[in-house]
Amino acid sequence: STNCYLLAIESSCDDTAAAILHNDKVLSNVVATQEIHEQYGGVVPELASRAHQQNIVPVVTAALRKANIDKKELSAIAFTSGPGLLGSLLVGTSFAKSLALGLNIPLIDVNHMQAHILAHFIDEDGYEKPSFPFLAMTISGGHTQIVRVDSYFQMSVIGETIDDAVGEAFDKSAKLLGLPYPGGPLIDKWAAKGNPKTFPFTRPKVEGLNFSFSGLKTQIMYFMQKQIQQNPNFIEENIADICASIQYTIVGILMDKIKKAVKQTGITQVAIGGGVSANKGIRHALKEAEKNMGWKTYLPKFEYTTDNAAMIGIVGYLKYREELVEKNNYVDTGVQAQ
Ligand code: KG4
Ligand code: ZN
């Protein structure tokens, strides 16, 4: 059996994150969220890279300290090689490469989207690991995919968005309502107090297992403009019902496709991952499907939904264990920008 102490680094977007794992258990999981982007209403790549440069050493130091591990005890280092923002990825990549070279330990590159899926294999009390094959729906600010997972490293994308990601749909809708970035969690919060059937938005018609969200954003924009013309306080007076209606529509779009995927593949095990898997609407809808349709669903622990390094660590560990890494060898792992 392996005895692996692993440092994982994630810097693909606007969170600088580091985690320490002992095999498949998380000893520490530190995230520095960059607040600088809030005032711009979205992630500014150049500012993100600069903030990663400032955060990377303190975040890694904090992760080691919280795990009570000295860097000399590390067996390997895993880092996000992509997809993501080039400047952001480079900070984590360069740091990981240098440290692995200095410590003479293996360096393991990890795909961010694979990590959102394999986060389900972190050993956590009260959380069951999926068995193969299962379907994973990765729903984040950058991606929306349905993936057929046959083993840890055999995955195939069977459906994806043809335009915006679902997280973008949440964030852009929130922006139209004057909510700060990232607005997804705020829509979720307001939705809990509203009636989802108040404003019926239409779902797009998209072939197969693919998604489209850009039409919804436009639909919401025209709807708001029209309502505000009649009542300038429309948003303030109806914020809960608007958020509930938007969330109901988005969750409906996701559920339609995952139901179709289950039907097509005959696989009734469904896992979700990515920032939007924190959403109460989608969590509730999946639990309902479990009850009514006999599915088995896997919802990640909240701290592993949005970007984090623990999920990078579990992929690193699984690769290390399967010896997909050349031990004590410098591996030139390139960065794959989005
Ligand atoms: O996975 P993630 O942290 O970063 C990417 O890889 O993109 O996902 C961030 C996205 C944002 O769009 C954010 O608004 C959304 O996840 N999000 C949510 C919720 N929590 C985060 N969307 C809806 N409801 C939530 N509770
Ligand atoms: Zn992500």
UniProtKB/TrEMBL annotation:
Catalytic activity of the protein: L-threonylcarbamoyladenylate + adenosine(37) in tRNA = N(6)-L-threonylcarbamoyladenosine(37) in tRNA + AMP + H(+)
Cellular component, GO annotation: cytoplasm
One Gene Ontology term from the biological process aspect of the record: tRNA threonylcarbamoyladenosine modification
Protein name stated in the entry: tRNA N6-adenosine threonylcarbamoyltransferase
Major enzyme class: transferase
Protein family (similarity comment): Belongs to the KAE1 / TsaD family.
Isomerase keyword on record: no
Domain Gcp-like: 25-313
Gene designation: tsaD
NCBIfam families: gcp_kae1, T6A_TsaD_YgjD
Organism encoding this protein: Dokdonia pacifica
PROSITE patterns assigned to the protein according to its UniProt record, in alphabetical order: GLYCOPROTEASE
Biological role stated in the UniProt entry: Required for the formation of a threonylcarbamoyl group on adenosine at position 37 (t(6)A37) in tRNAs that read codons beginning with adenine. Is involved in the transfer of the threonylcarbamoyl moiety of threonylcarbamoyl-AMP (TC-AMP) to the N6 group of A37, together with TsaE and TsaB. TsaD likely plays a direct catalytic role in this reaction.
GO molecular function: iron ion binding; tRNA N(6)-L-threonylcarbamoyladenine synthase activity
Cofactor note: Binds 1 Fe(2+) ion per subunit.
The protein's required cofactors: Fe(2+)
